[in-house]
């Protein structure tokens, strides 16, 4: 009575196709959510954080110093009270003549070799060689303060102290410090960047397959 024998078959095909498309959408959503979670999570763990870490993994990493600086003497002539510095000099730094070089040479070597670390003045590095491909380790190896010695009870001492305190309270010193040591560019903006098709095309492969199957089935149904 007017029953189309192919109707149920076509309906089943459409149900299967709808199920496949929904599966593709679910996979796409799952992939996108996992990708977003990975990008937003702080998962970068530094393999080396301290001098002790460098010594413990001395067979893997090299340590460089800036030639003709106090840092070289600090490591080279370290006594029994600085066992770590002494051992680093004997077993790591002095093993390779390239480990004593200029700031520029050390930075270039760090960029070329991910297993090389260098100790240098932080502000000088930021002002002249800062590179977002490099990371400054959290440990400060050498800390020093700059001072100008003056004779005790010098008549100019109270005046200088008053002016410095006044500059500090007014924020002038902070502005000068930011101007003098404000070199380098911020790297935070480069941590997250727009993803192109090359990074995300796999998320749409199944969806494209579903669309292709739907087009083929539609053509077959129209000609049968």
Descriptive account of the structure:
This protein has two domains: about 5-45 and about 200-220; about 50-185, no CATH class. About 55% of the residues lie in helices and about 5% in strands. The protein contains ten helices and three strands, in the order ααβααβαβααααα. A three-stranded parallel beta sheet has the order 2-1-3, sandwiched between helices.
Radius of gyration over alpha carbons? 32 Å
Give the helix/strand class: mainly alpha
- Which consecutive residue ranges, at least 5 long each, have pLDDT under 50? none
Strand content: under 5%
Helix content estimate:
40-55%
Question: How many beta-strand segments?
Answer: 3
For the report, how would you describe the main beta sheet?
3 strands, parallel
Helix/strand order: HHEHHEHEHHHHH
Major sheet strand order: 2-1-3
Terminal Cα separation, in Å? 20 Å
Output mean pLDDT. 79
* Tally of individual domains: 2
- Shape assignment: elongated
Helix segment tally: 10
Keywords:
single chain; 224 residues; mainly alpha; 2 domains; three-stranded parallel sheet; 3 strands; transmembrane; glycoprotein; Insect_Ionotropic_Sensory_Rcpt
Which SSEs are present, and which pair or pack?
Blueprint: H1 7-40, H2 51-56, E1 62-66, H3 70-76, H4 83-93, E2 100-101, H5 103-112, E3 116-119, H6 122-128, H7 157-170, H8 172-180, H9 197-200, H10 205-222
Parallel strand pairs: 1-2, 1-3
Helix pairs in contact: 1-10
């Amino acid at each position: 009575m007017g029953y189309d024998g192919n109707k149920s078959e076509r309906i089943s095909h459409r149900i299967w196709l709808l199920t496949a498309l929904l599966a593709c959408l679910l996979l796409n959503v799952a992939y996108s959510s996992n990708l977003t979670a990975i990008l937003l999570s702080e998962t970068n763990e530094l393999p080396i954080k301290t001098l002790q870490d460098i010594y413990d993994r001395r067979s893997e990493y090299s340590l460089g110093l800036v030639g003709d600086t106090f840092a070289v003497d600090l490591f080279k002539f370290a006594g029994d009270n600085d066992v770590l510095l002494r051992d680093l000099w004997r077993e790591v730094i002095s093993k390779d003549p390239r480990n004593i070089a200029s700031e520029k040479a050390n930075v270039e070597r760090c960029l070329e070799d991910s297993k090389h670390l260098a100790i240098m003045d932080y502000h000088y590095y930021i002002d002249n060689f800062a590179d977002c491909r490099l990371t400054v380790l959290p440990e400060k190896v050498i800390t020093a303060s700059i001072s100008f010695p003056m004779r005790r009870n010098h008549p100019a001492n109270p005046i200088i102290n008053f002016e410095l305190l006044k500059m500090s309270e007014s924020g002038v010193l902070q502005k000068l410090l930011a101007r003098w040591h404000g070199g380098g560019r911020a790297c935070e903006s480069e941590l997250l960047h727009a993803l192109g098709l090359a990074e995300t095309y796999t998320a749409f492969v199944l969806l494209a397959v579903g669309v292709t199957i739907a087009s083929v089935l539609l053509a077959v149904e129209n000609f049968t």
